[in-house]
Amino acid sequence: MEISQSRLQSTVESLAAFPTRNTMTPGHREAAEWLAEQYRAIPGLQVELMEYVLQPGKRVPEPTPAVQVVATLLGRSSRRILVGGHFDSLNLQGQPHEVPAPGANDDASGTAVALEMAHLMAEHAWENTLVFVGFSGEEQGLQGARALASRARAENWEIDAVLNNDTVGSSSNLIGQSDPHQVRVFSDEGAPRELARWIEWVARQELNDFGVKLVLRKDRFGRGGDHTPFAEAGFPAVRFIEVHEEFARQHTPDDLPEAMDFEYLANVARVNLHALVILARAEKGPTNVRIERADRHSARLTWEGPDLVTVYWRETTSAGWQSWTDASGFETVVEKVNIDDHIFAVGAKEGFPVQAR
Ligand SMILES: [Zn+2]
After folding, report:
1. How many Å lie between the centroid of ligand 1 and the Cα of residue 167?
2. How is residue 172 annotated by DSSP?
3. What pTM value is reported for the model?
4. Is residue 55 within 8 Å of residue 140, measured between CB atoms?
5. Strand partners, 159
6. For residue 329, how far is its CA from the centre of ligand 1 (angstroms)?
7. 103: CA distance to ligand 1 center in Å?
8. Residue 224 scores a pLDDT above 90
């Protein structure tokens, strides 16, 4: 499976060519129709235009009907992995229907990553069900993501992971800072953090010249993203975003494809793909993961669930996994690694681990 940089670029350019995709304008419906068409062209996907109502609040004077795109690739199990970006755009320099809002980086870039994942993942059959989402209403307070997260709760969706890509297509800003080799992954404490930590580890295993910069926060200061309603609903949900945002372009007519770095965007897509492939075939993770001291200087781990697992450990001061080994039989001893100075976790052979307590 190889990421197509040219397809990513062409998706971004097509979306940026709409005068506006602001959810308060009919433009967002046209963009949703276009995006749904792209998903419908991929064999095997069930494509839905999900209607919901924007509630009065930030940038919404009265209840306003809206639509977003949900494309599903059924797996053998009903456990779901979501990957998405928001296709709606915003220009704060005038009335929504009067000003152009190309929103190339924010967030045609993430929308293109989700669509690219669908193109590649739909070529194969998977254990788990994959859901590709083009969110809208993000710029009105994450309302599309809120609508889908509450629907997921109401319909008892079992969601293993949510990968939200928002503003992932530029490696530099206008003051000369640049980092073409990393993407930030933001995560809240708990399951989202463990998902993020594991994604960083996956990228380290799979890619040479590109990696994940973990940020141990739910999002940037005073800002939110479409992963947040899912994390608040109790699902493991994280946000991918470039390292050096350019705030002077965001939410202006200058958020154009010309200001993007499509090689960088393709690398972010590669991180998503490596994680998604493993999550798509992952069995259900372990439960009741316990740790105790063994033979004075070693660590004994026990768990329930999968027989074959990977045990990970790290110094308490390290954000990322430093060592790992395969194990089986619901119990293992890691020799000569003391439990006082290290944090351990156990994961199914494929899938992200659960911290041992
Ligand atoms: Zn955004």
Report:
1. 6
2. B
3. 0.97
4. no
5. 80
6. 45
7. 8
8. no
Residue 21 CA to ligand 1 center (angstroms) comes to: 12
pLDDT of residue 58: 82
- pLDDT, tens digit (0-9, with 9 covering 90-100), for 56-73: 998 999 999 999 999 999
- Give the residue from 116, 267, 115, 288 showing the smallest Cα distance to 182: 267
Q: How crowded is residue 154: how many other Cβ atoms within 10 Å of its Cβ?
A: 8
Largest CA distance in the chain: 71
How close is the Cα of 298 to the center of ligand 1, in Å?
46
State whether residue 357 is helix, strand or coil.
coil
Q: What is the pLDDT of residue 288?
A: 97
CB 273 within 8 A of CB 117: yes
Backbone angles phi, psi at 6, to 5 degrees: -70, -35
284: left (phi over 0), alpha (psi -120 to 50) or beta: beta
Cα separation, 342 vs 301, in Å, equals: 13
Contacts for 204 with CB less than 8 Å, ≥ 6 apart = 211, 212, 320
285 and 352 in contact (C-beta within 8 Å)?
Answer: yes
